[in-house]
Design a protein that fits this description.
The structure holds 2 protein chains of 2 kinds. By secondary structure, chain A is low in regular secondary structure. Chain A contains no helices and no strands. Helices cover 0% and strands 0% of the residues of chain A. Chain A is elongated, with a radius of gyration of 11 Å. In chain A, 8% of the residues are buried. The model of chain A has no long low-confidence stretch (mean pLDDT 82). By secondary structure, chain B is mainly β. The longest helix of chain B is centred in the middle third of the chain and has 6 residues. In chain B, the strands form 9 sheets. In chain B, strands 1, 2, 5, 6, 7, 8, 9, 10, 11 and 12 form a 10-stranded mixed β-sheet that branches. A two-stranded antiparallel sheet of chain B has the order 3-4. Chain B has a two-stranded antiparallel ribbon with strand order 13-14. Classes of the chains: A little secondary structure, B mainly beta. At the A-B interface, loops of A face strand 23 and strand 24 of B.
């Protein structure tokens, strides 16, 4: 059973702006 | 076949031919008869020692090829049936001296220096050598009937291991007779205790090495009539004259070349083999620094060895510590490993890359960049051999780009996967 890859759009980047990858 | 390699191509010691290194070379003389204006000189001859001497006089004239005695005659083809003699001006007597200087053009290992005289041999003379193209001079051998008085040296001193690199003074070859045709031959290794083991004697290897030879005639032999009244004819009979100056030896190439050649600038250099370089093959050629340079010996060629950089570096340097630690096998350290490799042999991938085991280490693309997920991975450096990135809790996959079984994605980039309730 292969798990889906992480969906970058689902993450909440509030308070983590500095961690947000440039191309997200 | 190349003398520096045996049949299967294994390197072996090789040395250039033994030659007369003076032949055809220019000799600078501090005095030559007839050089400025024609001059008279007289030749003394006698049937043998003690017989009455006869004196015949001639003219020395630089403008007349039949009467000139240039320094070039010292190193031209020596024809015993038609001797050509260089000749100094008359009566250049102690404390004045006459000097002959010969540049060999490169370092030679000198076996002998010989002079064949057309005049009586000098009462005193010195042979010097230079190892730095004439900057400094070292005595090679002294000749005098009065070594102590003339050169403050003992006559025929015993040579020991402690002083084998010192010149000796000897009264041999200083007899005034024969009045013509006398020979002085100096053998550089004669009487030197380590001569039989020359290969293992850096001291003697250094001793016989020369770039230039200088002969200084310090005192003329005379019959004692030079100070009598009307001494002019007598003084016109005293001069130095040599037909042949030879310097026997081999081009110095430290066992790494079988010949010397002219380079682009016309300088004489060794045709270096065994991955060596330099005019005397006295260093390793670029990128061949895996072990220190050494002179070749009869038993061991000591060729230079290329550094092993797996085709990822063009430069390397030698490290003595590593060489010793390796049991004197390998000491090369590669510089500026490319293609994302690292290590002294560029044999593993640098941080942030991992081995693509489907390609050999020497392949340009042997190292692939880690591809760690920006959120799922706890870092960007992956395992060198598997490429596995370090995953955060609950995250799985080589690139840490999915949640593990029993987990689901959250909204937090800090804990991207949380357990399913």
């Amino acid at each position: 059973e292969v798990m889906p890859t992480l969906d970058m759009a689902l993450f909440d980047w509030t308070d983590y702006e500095d961690m947000k990858p440039v191309d997200t | 076949p190349d003398p520096c390699y045996d049949e299967p191509g294994t390197p072996r010691r090789c040395i250039p031919d033994f030659v007369n290194a003076a032949f055809g070379k220019e000799v600078r003389a501090s005095s030559t008869c007839g050089h400025k204006t024609p001059s008279r000189f007289c030749v003394l001859s006698s049937a043998d020692k003690g017989a009455e001497r006869t004196r015949t006089c001639h003219t020395c004239d630089a403008s007349d090829p039949r009467k000139y005695h240039p320094p070039a005659y010292l190193t031209d083809l020596n024809n015993p049936h038609n001797l050509t003699c260089w000749q100094s001006e008359n009566f250049v007597q102690f404390p004045q001296n006459v000097t002959l200087t010969l540049s060999l053009g490169k370092k030679f290992e000198v076996t002998y220096v010989s002079l064949q005289f057309c005049s009586p041999r000098p009462e005193s003379m010195v042979i010097y050598k230079s190892m730095d193209y004439g900057k400094t001079w070292v005595p090679f051998q002294f000749y005098s009937t009065q070594c102590r008085k003339m050169y403050n040296k003992p006559n025929r001193a015993v040579i020991t291991k402690q002083n084998e690199q010192e010149a000796v003074c000897t009264d041999s070859h200083t007899d005034m007779h024969p009045l013509s045709g006398g020979l002085i031959a100096f053998s550089t290794l004669d009487g030197r205790p380590s001569a039989h083991d020359f290969d293992n004697s850096p001291v003697l290897q250094d001793w016989v090495t020369a770039t230039d030879i200088k002969v200084v005639f310090g005192r003329l032999h005379t019959f004692g009539d030079e100070n009598e009244d009307d001494s002019e004819p007598a003084r016109d009979s005293y001069f130095y004259s040599v037909s042949d100056l030879q310097v026997g030896g081999r081009c110095k190439c430290n066992g790494h070349a079988s010949r010397c050649v002219k380079d682009r600038e016309g300088s004489l250099v060794c045709d270096c083999k065994h991955n060596t370089a330099g005019p005397e093959c006295d260093r390793c050629k670029p990128f061949h620094y895996d072990r220190p340079w050494q002179r070749a010996t009869a038993r061991e060629a000591n060729e230079c060895v290329a550094c092993n950089c797996n085709l990822h570096a063009r430069r390397c340097r030698f490290n003595m510590e590593l060489y010793k630690l390796s049991g004197r096998k390998s000491g090369g350290v590669c510089l500026n490993c490319r293609h994302n490799t690292a290590g002294r042999h560029c044999h593993y991938c640098k941080e942030g890359f991992y081995r693509d085991l489907s390609k050999p280490i020497s392949h340009r693309k042997a190292c692939k960049a880690c591809d760690c997920h920006p959120v799922g991975a706890a870092g960007k450096t992956c395992n060198q051999t598997t490429g596995q990135c370090p995953c955060k809790d609950g995250v799985a996959g080589v690139m840490c780009n999915r949640c593990a079984k029993g987990y689901q994605q959250s909204r937090s980039p800090i804990a991207p996967c949380i357990k399913i309730p």
